[in-house]
Specification:
The complex is a heterodimer. By secondary structure, chain A is α+β, with helices and mostly antiparallel strands. Chain A contains 8 helices and 20 strands. Chain A has a 6-stranded mixed sheet with strand order 6-7-8-3-9-10, sandwiched between helices. In chain A, a hairpin with a 4-residue loop joins strand 12 and strand 13. The two termini of chain B are about 40 Å apart. Classes of the chains: A alpha+beta, B mainly alpha. The interface between A and B is medium-sized, with 25 and 18 residues.
Chain lengths: ~350, ~270
């Protein structure tokens, strides 16, 4: 059963549409991530679910109940904010018990449940401290415990990791994911960080300009991006402008003939190829084989990132696995190639 | 140019010391004077005594003035806060289009000279009295209303500063956890701005308590505040009683500040 349903939800400020016809079903126990560049409407969507922003149209259903017109305090959502938003004048235990107090849970049970929630984030020994006495990572875990203590219908995470440094980010991310699985929580997280999104989500929703561009698993988004935007936003790609001249045949602006399997019919188009899909010194049997000159090499460790100029108008980026003895030098002439299935072609001008 | 930097430092300290001495001079002189034994202040003192302090109690207008000052200032501070709190909330939270203009307006009493304000309030209260036949001039109520105006700009200034420092997301967090707007205000916003409230109350109280110019227009016979009682006494006599009663007033304010500082670090809110 869908725990959370958004049906044609939209938000408009004056003439500016922030979210347009957003429709999404989130299953019970599913971890969904809204991913997109800043200003794409993902945070507005999350705030509409929490009730802080009133939708201009559409319907929001939580646990089967229409909550579209309910104020935040009558929805049972648990929100974790980017800046932790702990109450500075309450102890850690007081923070975590706040939601239970609002629900008129009696004192003894309240304290027991607050402590239990703190134990889940391994901070029960800090119960009597004040938020300012904790580190950023600990504060965010307290915020998480506070949201969990009320046993929310849906856990809402608004860029919860972006104020933390890289190491803590990893730690808190794993913690969030483990607890979500363990408790079978329905969760929605908003982030602009694709690595973060890819590592926690059951399902991702890529947004741009207030619209859903694609919904799918990590593999779906990476291997079968729905459009040019998703291809550019999730993972890396080289884009070559050009046109489809015949079914399965693309010609780049520089005149390179490229074959592909699925894609649009004749007309202006853009070709995308992932750097790791391109090989150097390919077998002659490979579909798309071209000669070029190495323009630039960056040593990334596991791979060498090689910029190869194929024609004055066409340049591709190739990730060459960094095996013993691998050497690619600037100015070198090399032959590269990729499989027909690795060509992703999208209709439209570049 | 050996030691030019050191010379600069010595000069800076000298100027700072001079400024401090200049500021403290009246305070020190008044304190010193209040312990003189002779009736006519002259230097050097003939000796020291505490006899001027008990004489304060013999002077009815000092005692009743002190009592009236305390009453007026306390009530005016409470009233001023009651106005300033919603006003500050509206200024900081409501996102009004004219909030800049409104906050300037609320701070205006700080800019208008006290005498001008006193005269204006005098005329205003006179008109009100004529229109409603309610005794305003010379009444404690009239005085309290005027002093409320003295308190408001201080309270607004400090509350706005305090509210601006409160992260609005903690209010959202409270609502998300099930708190209604009123509960959110009571349980989250109010505790967060407590330092501002305390500081606003203190500054409002101190300014109101020491006010002379506005009160001058509004007091009636037998109903004067302490600063006016002191002024009236000085018209006839210059004996150390005045210094002694000033010491009482200074001590009262100093104690209020010290007590406040124990709860809220004043240097952090002003």
């Amino acid at each position: 059963m869908a725990q959370l349903e958004l049906i044609d939800v939209s938000k408009q400020y004056g003439n500016v549409v922030t979210v347009r016809d957003f429709t999404l079903d989130v299953a019970d126990g599913e971890f969904t991530v809204l991913l997109g560049p800043s200003g794409c409407g993902k945070t507005t969507t999350l705030r509409m679910i929490a009730g802080f922003v009133e939708p201009s149209g559409g319907e929001i259903r939580l646990g089967g109940r229409d909550v579209t017109n309910d104020p935040p305090w009558r929805r049972n959502t648990g929100m974790v904010f980017q800046n932790y938003a702990l109450f500075p004048h309450l102890t850690v235990a007081g923070n975590v018990a706040f939601g239970l107090e609002m629900r008129k849970v009696e004192r003894a049970e309240r304290e027991a449940r607050a402590l239990e929630a703190l134990r889940m984030v391994r901070l029960d020994q800090y119960a009597e401290r004040y938020p300012r006495q904790l580190s950023g990572g600990q504060q965010q875990r307290v915020a998480l415990a506070r949201a969990l203590a009320i046993r929310p219908d849906v856990l809402l995470l608004d860029e919860p990791l972006s104020n933390l440094d890289a190491k803590l980010r990893e730690e808190v991310r794993v913690e969030i994911r483990q607890l979500q699985r363990q408790l079978g929580l329905t969760a929605i997280m908003v982030t602009h960080d694709q690595e973060e999104a890819l590592t926690v989500a059951d399902r991702l929703v890529v947004m741009d300009n207030g619209e859903i561009k694609q919904v799918g698993s990590q593999r779906d988004l990476y291997e079968r991006p729905a459009d040019r935007f998703v291809a550019g936003f999730v993972g890396r790609n080289t884009f070559l402008p050009g046109r489809v001249v015949a079914p399965g045949a693309f010609e780049s602006a520089g005149g390179l003939p490229v074959t592909f399997t699925d894609g649009p019919g004749p007309g202006p188009a853009v070709l995308a190829v992932r750097p790791e899909s391109i090989h150097i010194a390919p077998a002659e049997a490979e579909a798309n084989v071209f000669d070029g000159e190495v323009e630039f090499v960056t040593y990334l460790g596991p791979v060498l990132e090689v910029h190869v100029r194929l024609t004055p108008a066409d340049k591709v980026i190739v990730h060459v696995p960094n095996r013993v003895g691998t050497r690619v030098d600037m100015g070198e002439r090399i032959r590269i190639g990729w499989a027909r299935e690795s060509s992703m072609v999208f209709a439209g001008e570049a | 140019m050996i030691g030019s930097r050191r010379l600069g430092r010595i000069a800076l300290r000298g100027v700072a010391g001079f400024a401090l001495a200049f500021i403290l001079m009246p305070l020190v002189l008044v304190a010193w004077l209040s312990f003189f034994r002779q009736e006519i202040p002259s230097f050097p003192p003939e000796g020291y005594s505490l006899r001027w302090f008990p004489t304060i109690l013999d002077n009815r207008s000092f005692v009743s003035g002190l009592w009236l000052s305390i009453r007026v200032s306390v009530v005016a501070t409470a009233l001023g806060l009651a106005f300033a709190l919603p006003a500050s909330l509206a200024l900081v939270r409501a996102g009004l289009r004219l909030s800049g203009a409104f906050s300037t307006l609320l701070l205006l009493p700080l800019v208008v000279p006290g005498v001008v304000m006193g005269a204006a309030i005098y005329v205003g209260e006179l008109e009100m009295e004529l229109a409603t036949e309610w005794p305003m001039l010379g009444s404690t109520m009239g005085l309290i209303l005027a002093h409320t105006l003295i308190v408001i700009p201080w309270a607004v200034r400090l509350l706005v500063a305090s509210l601006s420092g409160v992260n609005i997301t903690i209010e959202e967090a409270a609502k998300n956890l099930g708190a209604t707007p009123w509960t959110t205000f009571r349980r989250v916003t109010l505790p967060a701005i407590r330092p501002g409230i305390v500081a606003g109350a203190l500054f409002g109280f101190v300014t109101s308590f020491g006010n002379l110019e506005v009160s001058l227009f509004l007091v009636g016979p037998g109903n004067t505040t302490l600063p006016i009682a002191i002024l009236q006494y000085l018209e006839w006599k210059i004996d150390p009683t005045v210094a002694a009663v000033s010491m009482v007033q200074i001590t009262l304010i100093a104690v209020a500040m010290l007590v406040t500082d124990r709860f809220v670090k004043l240097s952090r809110v002003v």
